[in-house]
Amino acid sequence: MNEGFKDLKVYQLSYKLAMEIFEVSKKFPKEEVYSLTNQIRRSSRSICANIAEAYRKRRYPKSFTSKITDADGETSETIVWVDFAQSCSYIDSETHNSLVNSYREIGRMLGGMGDNPEKFLPKQQI
User: Fold this and answer.
1) Which residues span the domain enclosing 99?
2) Least C-beta-crowded within 10 Å: which of 43, 73, 92, 114?
3) Residue 2's pLDDT is what?
């Protein structure tokens, strides 16, 4: 089965960033394992999962848009957790700015997808 969604630039970027979050969060204090560490990993990974689900539902524009909106919500949530990580001095300003800027770019990409679901309709089978 061809996944298709893995070819989307927004998926590739969000996956790369989720892995970056995983690596960065390994350095968080142990007392954060069930709070910030878990939350930031969950939300960053959820972006990818929602993009994959949206892609599979793309023949139904309203369902597609709903899942893309969910992915965008997870993007905003991840930014909040990145802000907390910086405020708690778990990450430096450079890492914070890089992550936030990348997640904002994902948000812009997702916004474009949600505004134009017809561009993602599957090709008609003959």
Assistant:
1) 5-117
2) 92
3) 63
